[in-house]
Amino acid sequence: MKKLLIILIFSINAFCYDFGEDVNIMGKWEITTENNQFINFMTSAGSKWKVEIKDDGFIYDLDNGKFIHEKWSYTREQGVINIEFYNQNSRGEKVFNGYFGSLTNSNIKIIKKIEFNKYLVEIIDTNDKLIMQRLGDSRQVKNTKIKKDVKIEMK
């Protein structure tokens, strides 16, 4: 029974493609448009991006390692990732929010797995298709502090 349960859990995890809080999308990715057409995505128009999605909630350019003013987060809808333009002025206030929000923000969702570590993704607002391919063994582990249980025995 224990072996059957382990096999069942493994097979369920192997076939879950949707972004979700239990799926680790952090790591290095090459993102290209499906038909090499130019689209507006993240902070630029283009057809190819190499980025690193980190657990600090931000996205970095892989070519130079710099923060590209994009912030990512899980949304309330299962399987959807929000990519939001992020910029702060000297007082720490977000700028370009609201009026330009629809031009700079995107919600993406995996449509299907193409092959190992390669996914067809849709930008929900524009219906543009992207190919996201994980680069190498780039899975990033969350920075979590180890919690130790402290027991105090009184005699």
Task: Provide a quick synopsis of the model.
The chain is mainly beta and 155 residues long. The chain is built from two helices and ten strands; from the N terminus they run αβββββββαβββ.
Radius of gyration over C-alpha positions, nearest whole angstrom: 19 Å
Mind describing the biggest β-sheet? 8 strands, antiparallel, barrel
The neighbouring-strand order within the major sheet is: 1-4-5-6-7-8-9-10
- What number is the mean pLDDT? 72
Helix content: 10-25%
- List unreliable stretches of 5+ residues: 14-18, 140-150
Oligomer: single chain
Order of helices and strands: HEEEEEEEHEEE
How much of the sequence is in beta strands?
35-45%
Shape: globular
Number of helical segments? 2
The CATH C-level name is: Mainly Beta
Q: How many independent structural domains?
A: 1
Q: Would you identify the CATH architecture? A: Beta Barrel
- Termini separation comes to 43 Å
Alpha-beta content class: mainly beta
CATH level 3 topology: Lipocalin
Number of DSSP strands?
10
Protein name: Lipocalin-like domain-containing protein
Walk me through the structure.
The structure is a single chain. The N and C termini lie far apart (43 Å). By secondary structure, the chain is mostly beta strands. A hairpin with a 4-residue loop joins strand 4 (48-53) and strand 5 (58-61). The protein has one domain: Lipocalin (Beta Barrel). The radius of gyration is 19 Å and the shape is globular. Residues 14-18 and 140-150 have low confidence and may be disordered. Helices cover 11% and strands 38% of the residues. It has helices spanning 2-14, 101-104; strands at residues 27-33, 39-41, 44-46, 48-53, 58-61, 67-74, 80-85, 106-115, 118-123, 129-134. It contains two helices and ten strands; from the N terminus they run αβββββββαβββ. It comes from Campylobacter concisus (strain 13826). This is Lipocalin-like domain-containing protein.
